[in-house]
Amino acid sequence: MTRIGMIVPSSNTALEPATMRLIADRPDITVHFTRIPVRAITLTAGGAAFDVETMLAAARLLADANVDCIAWNGTAGSWLGVEYDRQVCAAITQETGIAATTSTFAILQACHDFGVEALACATPYTGDVVEAISQEYAHHGLDFVGHTEWELTDNASFAAQPDSAIADLLVSAVESGSGSSAAQAVALICTNVDGTTVLNEVEDRLGIPVIDSIAATLWWALELTGTDARIPGAGLLLEQGPLRHRAKALVTELRERTGCDRTTVRIDEPTLGLRVDLCAAESRAQGVRSIQHDPSLDQRALETVRWLEEHRQTLVQPTFAEPPHPPQALRDVYGVSAQVLGPVERDGELTAWFSAHSIAERPWTDDDVAAMTHAQQAMTALLKDQ
């Protein structure tokens, strides 16, 4: 049994029922709540007690329930700054010995694992709060390419909006964007607006993930306890997030071990909505262009992928002088001059493959190939659990 403790804003009426609905079919999880005073959301913090001692007092009560993780289920760190959340979590863990996290950490982690850099932002807050959030998120590699807000300050009023208004808020945040960068996800930043009831509808309409604060906080708290965090039917984050989180760790480790410029993994997993025409995870060296959200190529039709299908072994290419040749776009658009591809099989089918890209031609060492083999084996084990 996993017990999650959550610190809740006192005027919040959305997150508790939403969280309990999400875990309704999970008898292995219980969630326990306590509250701190929060009545209004403004940059002056009037009507809210976000100080560390108030958080500690709430955490001590949750610790009495022997919870496995304590989550501050509020997004104040999004405008107060991530350093504020770090201080709160460090103080809670030092005081109670229990791992701690926050809604803001969960949102940022979800963006990291889904490879999101261009983000649309939907909130009930006022424009100055949204501007502060935008500035803070920019420090973490996230560019707001669109945003919509209700311009409200009274926290209790946030939860009074109907599902249709929440769906419209999310769609409007994406459609408000301008310029060359399309939103790769939309974040609903507030735990007193329940986006969990419209996640599937909005994601089907927009074709991108909705990172709902309530769902994200539950997901990340479960991940921190080592509990299966997948909840089918509750949006892309709770559906794909557990696998993407582990895939991100694998491509990051592969790039670090090989010293290459970019690593990716593509996965065909229909039950999760994953297809190989988009990367499930990517890791890049600084200044290297992302390929993760480019769906322009039919991956199964590529000469290199057909080679993997036929041979089912690691393809090592120090140069591209000999066949099988990669697509011209990989060379011309993304500047790749050498690569290693590692196939992953399940039930006799080529269901995934890793790519390690180098901008310069290079010899791939036995250690590089061993790192690729490790990644392939780890992904094989992960996919067996799906």
Task: Give a summary of the structure in a few sentences.
With 386 residues, this protein is α/β, with parallel strands linked by helices. It has helices at 15-22, 52-63, 77-80, 82-96, 103-113, 127-138, 155-158, 163-175, 199-206, 213-225, 236-258, 303-311, 328-332, 366-384; strands at 2-9, 29-36, 69-72, 99-102, 118-123, 143-149, 185-188, 210-212, 262-267, 281-284, 315-317, 338-346, 349-358.
Model description:
Residues 245-374 form the GAF domain. It holds the Pfam family Amdase. This is Asp/Glu racemase. The protein is α/β, with parallel strands linked by helices. It has 2 domains: 2-234, Rossmann fold; 243-384, Beta-Lactamase. It contains 14 helices and 13 strands. It has helices at residues 15-22, 52-63, 77-80, 82-96, 103-113, 127-138, 155-158, 163-175, 199-206, 213-225, 236-258, 303-311, 328-332, 366-384, and strands at residues 2-9, 29-36, 69-72, 99-102, 118-123, 143-149, 185-188, 210-212, 262-267, 281-284, 315-317, 338-346, 349-358. The protein has a 5-stranded antiparallel beta sheet, with helices on both faces. It has a 4-stranded parallel beta sheet with strand order 2-1-3-4, with helices on both faces. The longest helix has 23 residues, at 236-258. It is globular and about 65 Å long.
Quickly count the domains. 2
How are helices and strands ordered from N to C?
EHEHEHHEHEHEHHEHEHHEEHEHEEH
Global shape: globular
Structure annotation, total helices: 14
Please name the CATH topology of the largest domain. Answer: Rossmann fold
User: What is the level-2 CATH architecture name of the largest domain?
Assistant: 3-Layer(aba) Sandwich
- For the terminal residues, how far apart are their CA atoms? 21 Å
Overall mean pLDDT stands at 96
Helix percent reads 40-55%
Model regions low in confidence, pLDDT < 50 over at least 5 residues = none
Proportion of strand residues: 15-25%
Query: What characterizes the major β-sheet?
Result: 5 strands, antiparallel
The strand order across the widest sheet is: 10-9-13-12-11
Which structural class is indicated by helix and strand composition? alpha/beta
